[in-house]
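Bumping with the actual sequence this time:
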Amino acid sequence: TRSAPASAAHSSFHPGGHSARARTSVVLRVLCGKRYGSMKIAIIGEAMFEFRGQGAASTGLQYGGDTLNTAIHIARSGCDVGYVTAVGKDKLSDALIDAWDSEGLDTSHVLRHPDRYPGIYAIHVDPAGERSFLYWRDQSAARAMFDLPDMAAACSAVATADLLYFSHISL
């Protein structure tokens, strides 16, 4: 995870080490490259704020989540990726969307909930490098995204994608 220039940062998706990342990137470049035309990928899920650290020490506010990490990784490989989630109408949610735009994600269907905010998770890394997670997401904006009025338009856009990826937590 590294810090972004705004008040939010992002997590990098690293599946299985360098050689696995390299193979994944090659596959994505073939799928999304000129050889097969432009593939539109839609990803639906919950993005959250992340705190990472050891004990009470934290590296600060980041962002992540399985679907968001996947979306960013695929977009970095040159694919056209639309991300569907819900965040709040607050300044931190604005910063999330700006950061995702800078990663090349299509955020036109990131919905804004009037009364909820993104979920939060904390990662504790012990001295041996083992990670443990705590989540605060029961009342997150993404938990209510299918109740938002703009979700119908987002679903229509998703229906035009060549590939759909989602996490079951979203449903």
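The tokens above came from a reply further down the thread. The radius of gyration is 16 Å.
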